[in-house]
Each structure stands twice: as C-alpha cells, then as structure tokens.
Design a protein that fits this description.
Strand order of the largest sheet: 1-2
Number of helices: 10
CATH class of the largest domain: Mainly Alpha
Protein name: GntR family transcriptional regulator
Strand content: 5-15%
CATH architecture of the largest domain: Orthogonal Bundle
Order of helices and strands: HHHHHHEEEEHHHEEH
Keywords: DNA-binding, Transcription, Transcription regulation
InterPro entries: Bact_HTH_transcr_reg (IPR050679), Tscrpt_reg_HTH_GntR (IPR000524), WH-like_DNA-bd_sf (IPR036388), WH_DNA-bd_sf (IPR036390)
Shape: globular
Distance between the termini: 16 Å
Helix content: 40-55%
Structural class: mainly alpha
Number of domains: 3
Number of strands: 6
CATH superfamily of the largest domain: Winged helix-like DNA-binding domain superfamily/Winged helix DNA-binding domain
Largest sheet: 2 strands, antiparallel
Organism: Streptomyces hokutonensis
CATH topology of the largest domain: Arc Repressor Mutant, subunit A
C-alpha cells in the first residue's frame, strides 16, 4: 500500500507540541513524516524514525510517551530501540523480532501456519510463554491470527480476515480450510463500526467514540472493543494520529478504501 507521506513544519504544529521544560525529548520527533494507518514505512524513513526514537528515549521520553506522540504502537518503538541496541531486550522482544523478520523476508508468508509454540520455544531457546507473548503482539498488529484449537497463521494487516473460513498452508505444504470463529461481540462491534462509517454516522476525518463509550453501548469491556477495531486500524479504515490528535478517527480516505477493497477485507 502506498503511504500518503507529508511533513508538517514545526512552525505550524499545535502549540502544545512545542517543547516545554522537562519534555525536550519531543524535539527529536517533531520533524518526522507522519504515516496513516495501514501504510508501510519506506526503509529510509524507518531509519529516520529509529534515530529519532533513540534520541528521544535518551532525552527522557518513555516508550509509551513516544508511541503516543507518534501515533504508533509501543511495539514499533520497542523494536526501533532494540534494533539500535537500546533498552532492555526481553525474551518476548527477541522472539517478536525474529518472527517479524521471518514474515518480512518471506520465510513465513500470508496463509502459512506457524509451528506450535512449544516447538518454536525449543528452536529459539526461550520459554513457551515468550513465544505466546510475541505472537500476541503480532496478532495485535494484524500480522498473525491465533485460531482456537488450530494454531497461528500469518495474516496481512491490510486485509484482515473477517469471513467464516480461513485458507491456510501447513508446514508440510498441505492446504486446509479452518473455520474462523471470531467472538460474537468482536464481530458485531467491528461490523457496526464499519456500517457507521459507510452510512456517515462516523464521518471521514471525525473522531469515533472512545473504547469505554463503545464498551458501555455494547455491554462489553473496553478490551473487547480494542480487539474489534484493531484490524480496522491496521487496514487503514480508522487511524490514531497520536499526540497530534488524541483518540481514534475515521481515515479521511476511508470510503474510497472501502470501495476499492475486496468484499471480505473489512
């Protein structure tokens, strides 16, 4: 997916983004090019992000603060620091980095079923829990999906699976069809949010209700709401500008993306 890259000069950024006493770490992030959700970062710009994140961390910014300011995941910030040799790298970080690299270099392709967590743990020399933690992070980013009673499959965050079945390829090369059972509340919330974008209840460029507000509406906990709308962020229907604008917003190009997407994309 091609990203809509643009740089906003610091002189026209909101005043609350300008450095204040005790917040000098923000200076290192102000000139980075913003990316909308669902867009890939070019290698050159990824290097810019890594350098800026390391400088911001050294200047006192926490991993959470940096992630919120950039509107990116904590995982993205953590991996940037880890790649640069900064911060404390845990077993989960180590496994996550390896699995991500395997997806990037094609060792694991979309539709591939991963080895069982115990097997991966033995191969990588880490506890099974570390593998499960890494997969959980990757699932949050839409890169993998764990299907209860079956296993974990590599997915494309730009086209998260929402149908009733999932076509997978096992380690032996065999093709299988797995029944896909999303939690009923997750599917209901995801469908409702998508419908509200289509009918204009949630207009393009406007903020949607908070996870807590939606949780109260649907009678679920906020974590269920986050699980429901996570893939909608990964594929670019929704996005979180971060500290530039707090909250979750409908992407300005959401309707055109819906029209050009496959029927099961969202």
């Amino acid at each position: 997916m091609t990203s809509d890259v643009h740089t906003t000069p610091a002189s026209v950024r909101p005043a609350n983004l300008v450095d204040t006493a005790g917040r000098r770490w923000k200076q290192h992030l102000l000139e980075l090019p913003p990316y909308d959700s669902g867009a890939h970062i070019a290698p050159g710009d990824r290097a810019l992000y890594q350098t800026a994140i390391v400088q911001a961390r050294r200047a006192g910014g926490s991993t959470r603060d940096i992630a919120d300011f950039l509107g990116r995941s904590i995982t993205f910030v953590r991996l940037s620091l880890s790649t640069a040799g900064e911060g404390n790298t845990t077993a989960v970080d180590h496994v996550e980095a390896i699995l991500r690299s395997h997806v990037t270099d094609g060792t694991y392709q979309v539709g591939d079923v991963l080895p069982m967590t115990r097997q991966l743990g033995n191969e990588l020399g880490v506890p099974r829990d570390a593998v499960a933690g890494a997969i959980s992070r990757l699932a949050h980013d839409g890169i993998m999906l764990s299907v209860y009673g079956r296993g974990t499959v590599v997915t494309d965050p730009r086209t998260p699976p929402t149908g009733r079945v999932l076509h997978v390829r096992t380690a032996s090369g065999a093709r299988e069809i797995w029944p896909l059972r999303l939690g009923p509340n997750v599917q209901r919330i995801r469908n409702t949010v998508t419908d509200r974008v289509i009918d204009g209840t949630y207009p393009e460029g406007r903020k949607i209700p908070s996870a807590k507000t939606l949780a109260d509406e649907f009678g679920v906990n906020p974590e269920t709401v986050k699980n429901a709308i996570g893939p909608l962020k990964s594929c670019g229907l929704l996005h979180c500008p971060g500290a530039r604008r707090a909250g979750t917003f409908v992407h300005p190009k959401a309707l055109s993306r819906l029209k050009s997407a496959a029927p099961t994309t969202f």
